């Protein structure tokens, strides 16, 4: 049986020391599309080592930078075919600005396993801790298609209600046809983003963009347009992955500003009739 919640819940998935350099940060930003146009001072904050700003979403990839093999969903109580796996949601809470280079202890645990009937959902939490204390906390939900029905609890399905008014801002972010090939160098070598034969066997038309790449692109677009590029103002950023993005498509993000500094948003692909690809987006500010 591939899912055993009694074994999985509470299990430590990874407990490792991770390090990164400014080159890792630069590569991550370039993989999100930073540096276009290359003479824009706002873009050079992400693409040039002088006065380099670190997007808080870098914390999500930092523990996996040195992974060169396809990831595996193989943990205590969890054994799932990678072709069945999709990222469901991602949240981060940076406790302090991320340094341009540094190191931390990354500890990842399974905090819940949900039975959605047709799918299982594995909920993971990762904490990055350095000598000064917690640096960033992250929470992710991983969907394993076809792995539900093991008798676990269903869990709640949180929803973010968008205001019933026109958005305060609409921003378009262009992705590149080769963007998934570049982003996989940040540590996610899942062939779903590169290998047409693997993609077809998984039931997709063509390679898709990493959900976490879309996640980072949207965070950057909101930081740049609403927060004037001040990455340290991000107190939390979360989103639900609602659909696939094909490299080369446009990401259109509609943003609503709420009292208290909370931003709500949704991201669609205009080339496909505004299909929603990132939903339930919340960004809180300092």
Describe the structure in brief:
The chain is 18% helix and 37% strand.
Write the layout of secondary structure elements.
Elements: H1 5-8, E1 12-20, H2 22-31, H3 41-47, H4 58-61, E2 73-75, E3 78-80, E4 85-94, E5 102-115, E6 119-130, E7 133-145, E8 169-174, H5 179-183, H6 196-201, H7 211-226, E9 234-241, E10 250-257, E11 262-269, E12 275-285
Antiparallel strand pairs: 1-5, 2-3, 4-7, 4-9, 5-6, 6-7, 8-10, 9-12, 10-11, 11-12
Rg estimate, integer Å = 18 Å
- Biggest sheet architecture: 10 strands, antiparallel
Average pLDDT confidence is 93
Instruction: Tell me the β content.
Output: 35-45%
Main-sheet strand order equals 1-5-6-7-4-9-12-11-10-8
Find the structural class using helix and strand composition.
alpha+beta
Number of strands: 12
Helix content, binned percent:
10-25%
Order of helices and strands: HEHHHEEEEEEEHHHEEEE
Gap between N and C termini = 45 Å
- General form: globular
How many helical stretches? 7
Query: Which stretches are poorly predicted, pLDDT < 50 over at least 5 residues?
Result: none
Can you offer a commentary on this structure?
- With about 290 residues, the chain is α+β, with helices and mostly antiparallel strands.
- It has 7 helices and 12 strands.
- It has a 10-stranded antiparallel beta sheet with strand order 1-5-6-7-4-9-12-11-10-8.
- It is globular, with a radius of gyration of 18 Å.
- The termini are far apart.
- The model has no long low-confidence stretch (mean pLDDT about 95).
